[in-house]
Write a sequence for this structure.
């Protein structure tokens, strides 16, 4: 346990509770014991080679809470070195307070390029130095609180250039060659703690402590991402997970992420009379750090109804001219976005209707994807949002069953676009009188297969394909006082072009109402009355 003197030799990762129970004095004593347990000559060699104390500890296999402290007293290090040194050159300052920024520029560690010294350039290119993990954690805490995020947990994502593994291998081989087994270095490079793991050990607990929430080993909806790179990150790079700069290819000479690696082969078993030089060249610049705190998208779903024949489903602008008076997307999204305090939103629906088609009956399933929501709305807030949308003066759109989608709503949405049944009601005109035999013919048709080529009206934006669709059933409702107008109620496979099924689209849809009745048929109005989907 961290409170015991012999804890310096343990390799297990301490729990948050264990870390919290250790006082600052106890941490100092344990860290002091760890430093004293190291071979002084090897430590002096590494320090003189401009390797920071954090990298020295991880090189010797320490993997507990030692990386939480970056400021080591001069007396502690003096007991290891046995002589006075310019301690600030090794990334160590005496009497420093946790979390503050340094005004003195340190020599950049050749192994981690400042990562475990908490030395970096920010997104503006300004050189920043924190005294400890607490200082870096405080920057994370400040960003989250300034952005107004409400969180109940987080995932910590770290990205470092893969070339740092090359640095570890080179220095490990150097130490093996120069000192052999006597220095007590980790037996294999795999037993050394990587820069990435050391940094995660260092900052996880301080972030948890400041935010008063726990980190999660499984992906959380709220993510804190630190990305180190050689070049100044762009805003798009900072928001893209998994991107790193730097090459992990071995090179005979030269500059890998700004740190030249000597071309000698530092194998631990190598016997050579050649002088053993430190394998990493001096560096002058630390890495850039891009810090991003964001929430993964959340989804608010339900069903919408559209009562106007002049409202498109999504924002529709052609040549800088709006088509229609508004859109379902804007009416619903503009109310949901402020409820979640997000950056932006995307609108998704199970299919779509034309601007002149109403969506009635049960409504069409939809989801609003909110990017980087500062809060996940409660049921009460979602209910208020639903009421707000339904109370708008224009009454163009309404929503129902609004809720936070946490399960497989996305899969159901895509399934509903092509696999579910949909019902319609259309006002149809034919060029002759509608006879009783016509009504019987139409009504008797069950699960009728229809071949539809891509309609002429959408051919400019859709692939020219032939699709087979099914008309499950049809019913005819006569219009009082007219022999040529009637209401056609029908249930079809999702994705059926209803307008073309009525008029035939110059023979591109067959059969059609026109071909079945042997006359001209035109559709005057169309309403969607039901979209059959579970889960919405």
């Amino acid at each position: 346990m961290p409170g015991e003197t012999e804890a310096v030799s343990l390799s297990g990762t301490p729990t948050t509770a264990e870390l919290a129970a250790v006082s600052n004095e106890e941490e100092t004593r344990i860290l002091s014991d760890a430093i004293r347990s190291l071979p002084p000559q090897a430590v002096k060699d590494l320090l003189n080679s401009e390797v920071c104390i954090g990298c020295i500890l991880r090189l010797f296999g320490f993997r507990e809470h030692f990386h939480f402290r970056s400021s080591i007293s001069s007396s502690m290090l003096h007991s290891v070195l046995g002589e006075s040194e310019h301690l600030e050159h090794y990334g160590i300052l005496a009497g420093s307070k946790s979390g503050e920024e340094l005004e003195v520029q340190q020599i950049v560690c050749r192994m981690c390029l400042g990562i475990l010294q908490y030395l970096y350039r920010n997104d503006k290119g300004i050189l920043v130095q924190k005294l400890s993990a607490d200082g870096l954690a405080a920057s994370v805490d400040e960003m989250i609180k300034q952005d107004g995020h409400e969180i109940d947990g987080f995932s910590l994502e770290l990205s470092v250039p893969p070339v740092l593994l090359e640095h570890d291998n080179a220095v490990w081989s150097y130490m093996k060659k120069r000192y052999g087994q006597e220095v007590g270095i980790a037996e294999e490079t795999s037993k050394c703690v990587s820069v990435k793991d050391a940094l995660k050990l260092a900052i996880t607990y301080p972030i948890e402590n400041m935010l008063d929430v726990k980190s999660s080993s499984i992906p959380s909806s709220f993510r804190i991402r630190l990305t180190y790179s050689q070049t100044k990150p762009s805003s798009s790079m900072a928001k893209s997970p998994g991107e790193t700069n730097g090459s992990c290819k071995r090179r005979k000479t030269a500059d890998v992420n700004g740190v030249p690696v000597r071309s000698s082969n530092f194998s631990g078993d190598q016997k050579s009379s050649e002088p053993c030089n430190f394998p990493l060249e001096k560096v002058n610049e630390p890495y850039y750090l891009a810090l991003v705190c964001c929430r993964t998208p959340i989804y608010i779903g339900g069903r919408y109804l559209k009562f106007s024949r002049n409202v498109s489903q999504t924002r529709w602008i052609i040549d800088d001219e709006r088509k229609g008076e508004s859109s379902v997307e804007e009416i619903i999204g503009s109310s949901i976005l402020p409820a979640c305090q997000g950056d932006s939103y995307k609108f998704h629906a199970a299919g779509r209707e034309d601007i002149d088609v109403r969506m009635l009956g049960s409504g069409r399933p939809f989801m609003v994807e909110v990017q980087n929501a500062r809060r996940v709305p409660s049921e009460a807030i979602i209910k208020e949002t639903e009421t707000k949308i339904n109370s708008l003066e224009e009454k163009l759109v309404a929503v129902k069953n609004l809720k936070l989608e946490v399960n497989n709503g996305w899969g159901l949405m895509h399934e509903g676009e092509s696999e579910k049944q949909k019902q319609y009601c259309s006002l149809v005109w034919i060029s002759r009188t509608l006879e009783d035999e016509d009504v019987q013919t139409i009504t008797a048709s069950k699960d009728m297969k229809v071949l539809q080529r891509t309609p002429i009206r959408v051919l400019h934006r859709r692939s020219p394909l032939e699709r087979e669709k099914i008309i499950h059933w049809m019913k005819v409702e006569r219009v009082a006082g007219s022999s040529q107008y009637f209401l056609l109620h029908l249930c079809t496979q999702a994705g059926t072009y209803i307008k073309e099924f009525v008029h035939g689209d110059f023979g591109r849809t067959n059969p059609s109402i026109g071909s079945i009745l042997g006359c001209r048929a035109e559709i005057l109005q169309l309403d969607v009355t039901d979209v059959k989907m579970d889960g919405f």
Remarks:
- The first helix runs from residue 16 to 21.
- The first strand starts at residue 119 and ends at 121.
